[in-house]
Description:
Chain A is mainly α. Chain A has helices at residues 12-32, 40-56. Chain B has one domain (3-255): Metal-dependent hydrolases (TIM Barrel, Alpha-Beta Barrel), CATH 3.20.20.140.
Amino acid sequence: MKSIFELDSTSRDHLNRSNLIENHLWEIAKAVYPGAVIDPATVAKAKAHLLEFFKQSPPRRPS
Amino acid sequence: MRSIDPHIHMYSRVTDDYERMALAGIAAIIEPSFWLGQPRTSVATLVDYWEALLGYEAQRARQFGVEHFCTLSLNPKEANDPRMMGALDFLDEYLTRPGVVGVGEIGFDTLSPAEEEAFRRQLLIGDRRKAPIIIHTAHLNKYESVRRILEIIRAERVAEERIVVDHNTEETIELCLATGVMAGITVYPLTKMSPFRAVNLMRRYGTDRILINSSADWGISDPLSVPHTAQEMRQAGFRWEDIDKVLYQNPFNFFKQSSNFTFAGVE
């Protein structure tokens, strides 16, 4: 199974995983600011930071 | 709490779902014809599918007191198979059948020329019949898909008030609301909008021209997405009147534009 960074960014698999990450971030935003109206740009920015973090911290592959 | 799911593919769901939907207050549903997951071998199989929606599926729903209506079409994905374009010769006649409340879902999958031709033809068939039209927007390249759809609607001078452009996200909703069409929001767990995201959109843009649906199908989806959205709206502080408006009155009034929408309503 490929990581999201290895997928074609125009593929259905990439889109589905990307949406999954976004939905989790929306729930996190809700937990942080309950009752607030969330700016989608904030979630987009959080997603970019998060993906960059994971990109820089790849897991060890099982030998 | 009463509600209508204006876009759900019950053909791909088990009968238990009807029971759960009835218990959750879903009084009526609209089932657009969709892509069954593999290419067809002939137009006849599509016509058989339309017949199944009108017959067996409506009967399954009735067992639980859920009113079943459908919209018919050649799906955008199937429009890329030249063998399937013949289905459009049957569509106009089918729009007169009891239980058929419009055309759909039509629109784009990959934005190919074949999809555009099928989209235009079906758009005009629906408009001539003064039927509601459900428009699917591509999952990939969604913004361009919505922009192009709205451009074609304008160019063909089709009545915008009878159209719902579906599967909107934060990226596309303003495009739709700048026109006269209804904006559909699909609440579909994991891979599309969550109830919270849908509610966030309504807090930003209001509830006037919004339709909330589940689009539940073969995938990991939830036929109770509409009542779940009600719950999320309530938690966000929406009044019961607003919840009723967006989850019941908006779809009711939209499909009431079809003389085949015989749903008497729920008091």
